[in-house]
């Protein structure tokens, strides 16, 4: 671990973004340098979004690149800076993650339009043009582009036919009694309190607090806190501490993915696969596998250990391999990368081979 990581954190907490950027760029090991730059980028979003995007372009670690731009797109869209959010999303190399990021931007944009009302909002008010809009299509349901404006797509329904007169019976309101106080069940209040309390521990980066409460609580909260603890440890450069949190947790989506990405960046794919066992999020499993393939690591054994770390149907493995192949092929066609196209072919052929083996096994009597 580079001691400058701690210095970067301290400078950011003091609001010295320029100093933090200098310290981060001075870190020799590329992985930790890019990790520190990620913190700096997130801090720059509110102060100078253009600068944040510029720094993000310096990320060279393959396993961190897409994650940085995905997070940046998320933060920019929620700040209402949609043009830069789209630019950040378009910088994501993985077609799968790029589509998810652009959809997220479109969903936030739709929420803004609905809150503005039926009059709609012109693209210029949002800092967008029609070329930006093309990147967000298909637009979310209920949103349309008309007369240069984005607006809700719902229309008022009109009734056809004649209107007849008649007598409508008036129901007299009953005498109102004294209002009853609204009392929430205690367990709901307690649940809300603890959720806020634990979120505060994570937000402050309180390692000791997370350790303490993880030791007191039972599942599933115990694993939830250990997972956050492991993620925080690896952000601070304490890989061994993150591995310890991973071992103690029953489910570790965040820590498992972060450790897998770390070992992929170090060229240790088998070690990376070891940390997939407790990752239940299928998007994370696919993301790690695609990153492994992009960095040149692929074999049938590695694919199975990453895509089905807890075992499962061979048919499911075949489907996942074919899906991954098409994702890689689309990415290769976009970039004009022949090497990636060749990897896509290898992954697809592996999927076909696994499916054939599965089909033959069904014909053999048990």
Short synopsis of the structure:
The protein contains 18 helices and 3 strands. It is mainly α and 366 residues long.
Question: Can you walk me through this structure?
Answer:
The chain has 18 helices and 3 strands. It has helices spanning 4-13, 17-25, 30-47, 49-56, 62-78, 82-90, 95-116, 130-135, 186-204, 207-216, 221-235, 239-248, 253-265, 269-274, 282-294, 300-307, 314-335, 338-363, and strands spanning 121-122, 143-146, 149-152. The chain has a 3-stranded antiparallel beta sheet with strand order 1-3-2. Strand 2 and strand 3 (149-152) form a beta hairpin. Helix 13 (253-265) runs parallel beside helix 15. It is globular, with a radius of gyration of 26 Å. Mean pLDDT is 81; it is low at 155-170 and 183-191.
Using brief descriptors, characterize the structure shown.
66% helix; 18 helices; 366 residues; 3% strand; three-stranded antiparallel beta sheet; mainly alpha; single chain
β-strand amount: under 5%
* Major beta sheet, strand line-up: 1-3-2
Q: What's the overall geometry?
A: globular
| Rg calculated over all Cα atoms | 26 Å
Low-confidence stretches: 155-170, 183-191
Mean of residue pLDDT values? 81
First-residue to last-residue Cα separation: 53 Å
For the secondary structure, the number of strands is 3
Tell me the layout of helices and strands.
Blueprint: H1 4-13, H2 17-25, H3 30-47, H4 49-56, H5 62-78, H6 82-90, H7 95-116, E1 121-122, H8 130-135, E2 143-146, E3 149-152, H9 186-204, H10 207-216, H11 221-235, H12 239-248, H13 253-265, H14 269-274, H15 282-294, H16 300-307, H17 314-335, H18 338-363
Antiparallel strand pairs: 1-3, 2-3
Helix pairs in contact: 1-2, 1-3, 2-3, 3-4, 3-5, 4-5, 5-6, 5-7, 6-7, 10-11, 11-12, 11-13, 13-15, 17-18
């Amino acid at each position: 671990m580079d001691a400058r990581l701690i210095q970067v954190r301290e400078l950011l907490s003091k609001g010295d973004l320029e100093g933090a950027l200098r310290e981060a760029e001075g870190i020799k090991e590329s992985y930790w340098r890019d990790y520190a730059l990620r913190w700096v980028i997130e801090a720059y979003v509110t102060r100078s979004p253009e600068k944040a995007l510029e720094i993000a372009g310096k990320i060279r670690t393959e396993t961190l690149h897409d994650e940085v731009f995905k997070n940046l797109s998320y933060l920019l869209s929620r700040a209402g800076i949609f043009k830069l959010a789209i630019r950040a999303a378009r910088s994501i190399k993985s077609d799968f993650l790029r589509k998810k990021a652009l959809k997220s931007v479109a969903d936030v944009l739709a929420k803004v339009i609905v809150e503005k009302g039926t009059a709609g909002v012109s693209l210029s008010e949002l800092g967008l043009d029609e070329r930006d809009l093309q990147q967000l299509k298909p637009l979310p349901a209920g949103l349309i582009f008309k007369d240069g404006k984005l607006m809700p797509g719902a229309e008022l329904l009109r009734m056809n036919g004649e209107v007849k007169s008649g007598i409508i019976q008036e129901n007299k309101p009953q005498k109102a009694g004294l209002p009853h106080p609204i009392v929430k069940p205690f367990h709901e209040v307690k649940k809300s309190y603890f959720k806020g309390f634990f979120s505060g521990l994570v937000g402050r980066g309180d390692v000791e607090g997370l350790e303490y409460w993880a030791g007191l609580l039972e599942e599933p909260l115990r694993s939830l806190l250990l997972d956050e603890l492991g993620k925080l440890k690896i952000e601070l450069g304490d890989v061994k501490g993150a591995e310890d949190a991973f071992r103690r947790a029953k489910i570790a989506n965040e820590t498992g993915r972060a450790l897998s990405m770390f070992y992929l960046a170090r060229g240790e794919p088998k070690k990376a696969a070891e940390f997939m066992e407790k990752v239940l999020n299928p998007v994370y499993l696919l993301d790690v596998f695609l990153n492994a393939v992009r960095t040149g690591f692929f074999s049938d054994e590695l694919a199975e250990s990453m895509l089905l770390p807890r075992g499962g149907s061979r048919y499911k493995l075949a489907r996942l391999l074919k899906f991954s192949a098409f994702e890689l092929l689309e990415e290769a066609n976009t970039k004009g990368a022949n090497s990636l196209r060749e990897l896509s072919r290898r992954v697809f052929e592996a999927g076909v081979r696994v499916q054939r083996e599965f089909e033959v096994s069904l014909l053999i009597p048990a």
